[in-house]
Design goal:
Strand order of the largest sheet: 5-4-1-2-3-16-15
Largest sheet: 7 strands, mixed
Protein name: 4'-phosphopantetheine phosphatase
Catalytic activity: (R)-4'-phosphopantetheine sulfonate + H2O = (R)-pantetheine sulfonate + phosphate; (R)-4'-phosphopantetheine + H2O = (R)-pantetheine + phosphate; (R)-4'-phospho-S-sulfopantetheine + H2O = (R)-S-sulfopantetheine + phosphate
Number of strands: 23
Oligomer: single chain
Organism: Astyanax mexicanus
Pfam family, one: ARMT1-like_dom
Radius of gyration: 29 Å
Strand content: 15-25%
Helix content: 25-40%
Distance between the termini: 65 Å
Subcellular location: Cytoplasm
Amino acid sequence: MATPGGTNRASHSLDKSITLPPDEIFRNLENAKRFAIDIGGSLTKLAYYSTVQHKVAKVRSFDHTAKAGEADGEPLYEISVQEEITARLHFIKFENTYIETCLDFIKDHLVNTETKVIKATGGGAYKFKDLIEKKLKLKVDKEDEMSCLIKGCNFVLKNIPHEAFVYAKHADSGFRFQNTRPDIFPYLLVNIGSGVSIVKVESEDKFERIGGSSIGGGTFWGLGALLTKTKRFDELLQLASKGQHTNVDMLVKDIYGGAYGSLGLTGDLIASSFGKSATADKEFSQEDMAKSLLHMISNDIGQLACLYARLHNLNRVYFGGFFIRGHPVTMHTITYSINFFTKGEVQALFLRHEGYLGAIGAFLKGAEEDNPNQYSWGENYAGSSGLMSVSPDLNPMQRARSGTFDMLEMDRLERQLVNLPLLQDPSSYIPDTVDLTEDALAREYWLYCFEEALDGVVKRAVASQKDQPEAAERAEKFRQKYRHKLQTLRHQPFAYGSLTVRSLLDTREHCLNEFNFPDPYSKIKQRENDMALKYYQKVVRSLEELSWEQRQFALVRGILAGNVFDWGAKAVSDVLESDPEFGFEQAKQQLQDNSGMDIILGVFPFVRELLLRGTEVVLASNSGPALNDVTNSELQIVTERIAPRKVIDLSLYLFLLPSLTFNLFPSSRLDKVLATVVRERGTDLVIIEGMGRAIHTNYYAMLSCESLKLAVIKNSWLAERLGGKIFSVVFKYEVPSKAQGLH
């Protein structure tokens, strides 16, 4: 491997120890532009912008003149697969050892010649300036390290759900992720590099370094090298993880024989770091000395951070820098120190992507003309490595990845997301009902379910593109990638934040899109919609014959019966595949006191009843595919066919939801236009329908207006957990500040 001071190699292939091929690390280089780089003492972080071409499923309405319900034999709409371009941000992290070879690979594959400048930050930007300019033929434009760090931190806190976490050493996963807050400011950032910088961040552009210390990561590394003769930082941490600091440190009980009660000091508290080494006539192990040193540095930083947090009345304190780097032993010692000095009033918060903050900030500074902050961005799980533990007790899969290459990809969302205005307490809103990161039994069950369902998803993906001969090959690649993701999540459930049923579905959708399967359920939904539309008028006429009270019960049973048609639920898909004649009336019979049947025969009659009462209705749907849920474009066509029959008039407001699977309020954020309408129209009732929206998510969500959550439980394991049976009904009506519902 060539180094900056070594000789060049003819080959530009990456080191054999790297398991991924280069084109899977530096993806979409042919469309790359606006580079940025952050070079630290041991790690390089590269950032660039690219455009990605991918397939999307489009629906187009035929010119129908017949009434809804007339069987004219023609489908409701046609489906086509078209190409679209999406903006994507790439961030890659690797050891400085690989920098020259990586630059060579980028140079050989870089097509865009418009890029003339690369933004650079970090202590190594000066050291490698000449090498970068020589290899990439780009001028290095250095940016202030601290301002890049803050800009990057603001970006990830705003755009990545579950970016921040508390480290709990003795918890099942060790990581307790925090929900994205509506307002991320103000906060304290403690950056632990060679020294320590403590920065108060008050807004996007206002921050101030309010303190710091020369005793930081460099102190731990330097003194550790003198004490143990270990020169590598990670090896020093491994020594510390195996050590026992009480063999070196003098404790309160070593001085007083126990606790010092009048001062509130426990006997196990460190009274003097390295105190025993002055009096004990013996050799101390390298492990014990490394552990004592780690505690000494961490406690000093923790106390300093606490003092500044109290002085400035801040309760959000984020820690970052190479001293942290996701190491459990450093996160634990910092957490313990913060908890001790604040008596539990302040939590030490860490960031999943703290290593990328400088590179993200430098990139944003170089892309200000495009104003990336005006958009919302989402993590692409298919192209991101996720949070990797670097514990010395790694399992083999983790150990193979540690210290090589790490990737983060973020896609620009088609719509800007804002905070939902109807949450009673946005800061405490938790979308998902069960956190699989914490619940080991539930995690194992759902991972097994998604693995079992993989063959069916592959089958439907191929069937959705029968006219494309290479579809089977792409579907097999999807299978391999998603299975690998599931295996990773089994070992590292914390990889993408809190693991939930929703995030498992998100990951699957991302992998499907990766291999150009935009909507595997499109043909199924088309068939269901065509069939359901034929029966719509019959359903309406039968409802009109009922008394008011009977009609209300029939409408609710209808919306629940429609909810049974869910190809994403294995129990239902098994029935639908084995019995093609299974219909709406049979679904009603399954109930104990999603597209197609769900929307047309379930939701629309319910909406019609509200409209006839003079109620304005905002009907929200996903903008993109998620399982077999109806998409906005499909819903618009269905509405156009039904509306001329004067059952839906201008009182119906039709809006979109972001395509973030089935959560109605994804991480408390939703489409800005929809949020504006919800606020301006004075919404006083929210109806959340479906197992995904009302049970897997939002089950405990408290709104500032009345809400109705209704769904059919189509999973036997989940039904048993909730104390019911499969096809049991949840009907939960709530008013503000109360959680009383009818089940």
